[in-house]
Amino acid sequence: MKFSNLKDNLRRAVLRKIEAGEITGQRLAQLTGFQQAHISNFLNRKRSLSLEGLDKVLSVEKMSILDLLDPNEINKRASIVPPTEGDFESVLLVDSPVAATSDLVTNEQVKDILKFKKAFLKRLRADSSKAAQARHRFVLIKLDAHEGMSMFPRTLPGATLLIDRHYTSLKPYRGSEQNMYAVNVEGKCAIKYVEFDGTHLVLRPHNSAYPINVLQVEEGKAPADYIVGRVCHIAIES
After folding, report:
1. Pick from 163, 167, 168: which is nearest to 233 by CA?
2. For residues 8-20, b (16+ Cβ closer than 10 Å) or e, as one string?
3. What's the rounded Cα separation, in Å, for the pair 218 and 224?
4. Eight-state DSSP code of residue 127
5. Which of 34, 76, 100, 104 gives the lowest tally of CB atoms within 10 Å of its CB?
6. SS3 helix, strand, coil % of the chain, rounded to 5?
7. How far, in Å, CA of 184 to CA of 203, rounded?
C-alpha cells in the first residue's frame, strides 16, 4: 500500500465521522490547531497534510495507522495462520469477543489452532456484504455454560463452534432448516436462531428454558451488521 493511499483512507474515515455527526470540520480544526480552510482543503483533496498534521488528526480521532490499512492487504502480507500442507487447513480458536469484533485476528488473540479438511471448507458457501468479506473468514470459539445450554441439545457447554464470518445472510443455508448464527451482542457472540421483523432482530434459543432476546436494529443498519457469521460445524467432546 502506498503512503498516498493511507492519506486517502484517513480522509475517508474523517468524512464518515463528519457525515455521522461525530465531529465537524470546524471542531477538527480547533482540536488540531489548523485553520478551518486548511482542514476543508484536505477533506476536499485540494491539499495534503504534513506527517505532523496527519499525526495530529490521528490523535484527535483516537485512531492509529493500523485503522488506515486495508484488511486484505494485511492478510496477504502478515498471515498469522501457519502455512498448510496436504489436505488440511489451519483455523484459529479465539475468545468470543474476538470473533465478534475483530476483523483480523492477531497472534496474541489466538488460543489454539485446529485443522479442518480443505475440501470441507471449500464446499461451504459464502453469502455476505463486501464489508463482511474483509474479515478473516473462519474462526473457532468455545461455548460457555450459558450459550452452550441455550442451544441444548444442539450444543453443550465447552462445545467448539466453527463460524463462517462470510455468511451473514438470513437466507436458509439448507432448504427450510434454520441457520444457527453467532450474533454480536454487547461485544460477544450470542449463539441463536435469528429472525428479522423489519426493525428488530429476534434471537431465539433452541432450549425453551432460556429467554428470547430482541435487538433493535439501528437506523441505517442491516441485520448483517449484527451477525458475526453462520455456525457451520459443532464439535462436542465426549
Report:
1. 163
2. ebbbebbeeeeee
3. 12
4. B
5. 76
6. 35, 25, 40
7. 11
Report d(CA 169, CA 186) in Å as an integer.
20
* Cell numbers describing residue 85: 500442507
CB atoms within 10 A of CB 119: 10
Indicate the SS3 state at residue 179.
Answer: coil
What tens-digit pLDDT sequence spans the chain (238 residues)? 466 677 788 888 888 888 888 888 898 888 888 888 988 888 888 888 787 887 888 888 887 776 776 665 555 444 455 666 689 999 999 999 999 999 888 888 999 999 999 999 999 999 987 667 778 899 999 999 999 999 999 999 999 999 999 999 999 999 888 999 999 999 999 999 999 999 999 999 999 999 999 999 999 899 999 999 999 999 998 6
Q: What cell numbers appear for 123 in the block?
A: 464446499
